[in-house]
Amino acid sequence: MNKQHSPAALRNRTPIAQILEDILPESGSVLEVASGSGEHVTHFARHFPQLTWLPSDPSAEARSSITDHLQESDLSNCLPPVKLDASDPKWPASLPRGTELHAIVCINMIHIAPWQACLGLLDGAAELLPAEAPLYLYGPYRRAGDHTSESNAAFDAQLRQRNSEWGVRNLETVCEEAQDRGFRLDKTVEMPANNLSVIFRRTAAAQR
User: How far is CA 25 from CA 46, 47, 71, 126, in A?
Assistant: First the structure.
């Protein structure tokens, strides 16, 4: 078995699902970008059986873990994981032909990836999502340039030490980039462990 386990995923999947209950459509398909171990998407597919879930990750090891979690769960509303790198400007072509999305979920990616992955995620979401469809982001953020806690500041320093292209992003900068691509900020929700749920809605055509 190749299953990976994330203590953070086990802690935050229920609070995240509570937010998703209010924003996901009643039916349709949801793409999860950077699914990691697969524990989130497995939980969400079980919690939202009326939706079809499509997990993805650039890592072959992660995709193997996702597959094992899905096989063990025996879920009929979750598709096999696809190889998807959000920093690749052509990543929408990675999706199965004919895929129509009604929401995109991305958890704990933006700070553990180059900034280009965030921009690529926004570009792809702008291309794929219909009007009023949600783009859900979860993770730690700076607000007005400042960390929201000492633990987030320490975490940011650790990330940047591991990779200079990583780091906790400024929420206002992410919102500006999203707005440039035809999204409006619907709401932000404070979550456990100094994280935020950030919900955007697709509005106008992308300006870039």
Answer: 15, 13, 25, 18
Q: In this predicted structure, what is the pLDDT of residue 169?
A: 98
User: 130, 56, 61: which is closest to 88 by C-alpha?
Assistant: 56
* Phi-psi domain of 181 (left: phi exceeds 0; alpha: psi -120 through 50; beta: other): alpha
Q: Say how many C-beta atoms besides its own lie within 10 A of residue 72's C-beta.
A: 12
Sign of CA dihedral 157, 135, 78, 130: negative
Lookup: tokens for 170:
């400024």
What residues of the chain score a pLDDT lower than 50?
Answer: 206-208
What angle do the packed helices 171-180 and 115-128 form, to 10 degrees? Answer: 40
The domains of the chain are located at: 7-202
Owner of token pair 């999947």: 13
What's the fold here for domain 7-202? Rossmann fold (3.40.50)
pTM (two decimals): 0.95
**Which pLDDT value is given to residue 205?**
56
Burial level of 52, CB count in 10 A (0-12/13-18/19+)? buried
Alpha helices in the chain (DSSP H): 7-23, 39-47, 60-73, 115-128, 150-162, 171-180
193 HSE (CA, 13 A, CB side) = 13
